[in-house]
Design a protein that fits this description.
Elements lengths: L18 H9 L7 H12 L3 E11 L2 E10 L8 E6 L6 H13 L9 E5 L4 H6 L21 H11 L5 E9 L2 H15 L13 E5 L5 H11 L13 E2 L2 E2 L5 E4 L1 H4 L10 E7 L8 H21 L1
Parallel strand pairs: 3-4, 3-5, 5-10, 6-9
Antiparallel strand pairs: 1-2, 2-4, 6-10, 7-8
Length: 306
């Protein structure tokens, strides 16, 4: 793991960022990969089998990003909806590619049982820059609430609100990376004028359930499926994963609505956030994508069986 700097290079310790610091931060962000090549081109290949729709557009300076979703072509009012989201944090690569891989390879068995809605890359600007935040230094995954500041989140919330059919399941695909500790959490502390408190990145896959409406049997069904593909994060000596008490093997709980997390935007009976660890020497990129796909398939199978 890289060494965490004593102080973040932007801003003054203890002082929240203003417009000047945010502008300085933005100047340091560079495009490192292509949303058009990696995501939009993959979606074009799906148009023969699915409805691919634009549900919003982001304009950041000269860059314009269409926000895209994939829908079942045979959408029916008597079928429940399965919502899959990826790339809410753009740097979390397997969330994006796992969602795309699921649609490309694994939807045939569900076509006549559910309505599928998949938003594979919620934050394309951040995807290209391998970053957690959007261009305004705002975390989209803390903005799924009234008054949220991220256009990425607002557009997705409006898309989901337009659905009349009941949403049975929402699975949001994420990663926890070493850069959470070396870059993103230090940047968050600096942005908000707070001290940075070092933590430990868990080695392995885990899930985030809802504190208010937990579904422990559902979460464990996913853990049992994914452990056949990659290793599950153990709790540390305090019985915690990433600073939160482990509710069960590979599962922690957050107050989803209070934090404005993506999985709080529906009243789906089954909701979970996956967390893949791509920096482990025990996991390849292919395993990370496979873990996401496996979690999605296991979630759908469990939801339909109950």
């Amino acid at each position: 793991m890289n060494t965490v700097p004593a102080t973040y290079p932007i801003g003054a310790p203890g002082k929240p960022w203003g417009a000047e610091e945010r502008a300085e931060w933005l100047l340091q962000q560079t495009r490192q990969r292509s949303y058009e090549s990696d995501v939009l081109s993959a979606l074009e290949r799906l148009r023969s089998r699915f409805d691919v729709q634009e549900y919003g557009r982001l304009e950041y300076g000269p860059d314009v990003y269409p926000l895209m979703a994939v829908r079942s072509r045979d959408w029916r009012a008597d079928r429940p909806v399965v919502l899959v989201t990826g790339g809410v944090h753009g740097y979390e690569t397997s969330g994006v590619h796992g969602a795309l891989q699921f649609v490309e390879r694994h939807t045939a068995g569900y076509a006549d049982r559910v309505n599928l809605l998949v938003a594979p890359c919620v934050s394309p600007w951040a995807y290209e820059r391998i970053h957690r935040w959007n261009a305004h230094a705002v975390d989209p995954n803390r903005s799924f609430r009234d008054g949220g500041q991220a256009g990425e989140s607002l557009a997705l919330m409006q898309l989901v609100a337009s659905i009349d059919e009941p949403i049975l399941l929402h699975i949001d695909l994420h990663e926890t990376t070493d850069t959470d500790e070396t870059e993103f959490r230090p940047a968050l502390a600096a942005r908000d004028g707070k001290p940075f408190e070092p933590g430990t990145i868990p080695d392995g896959f885990y899930l985030v359930d809802d504190t208010e409406r937990p579904q422990p049997e559902f979460q464990q069904a996913l853990i049992k499926a994914v452990e056949k593909v990659t290793h599950i994060a153990p709790a540390d000596e305090k019985g915690e994963i990433l600073g939160s008490p482990a509710a069960d093997l590979g599962v922690i709980r957050y107050p989803l609505a209070q934090l404005g997390l993506c999985t709080s935007m529906t009243n789906a009976r089954y909701r979970t956030t996956t967390e893949v660890y791509p920096d482990s020497d025990r996991a390849t990129p292919e395993q990370c994508n496979a873990a996401q796909v496996t979690a999605v398939c296991a979630a759908i199978e469990y939801a339909l069986s109950t």
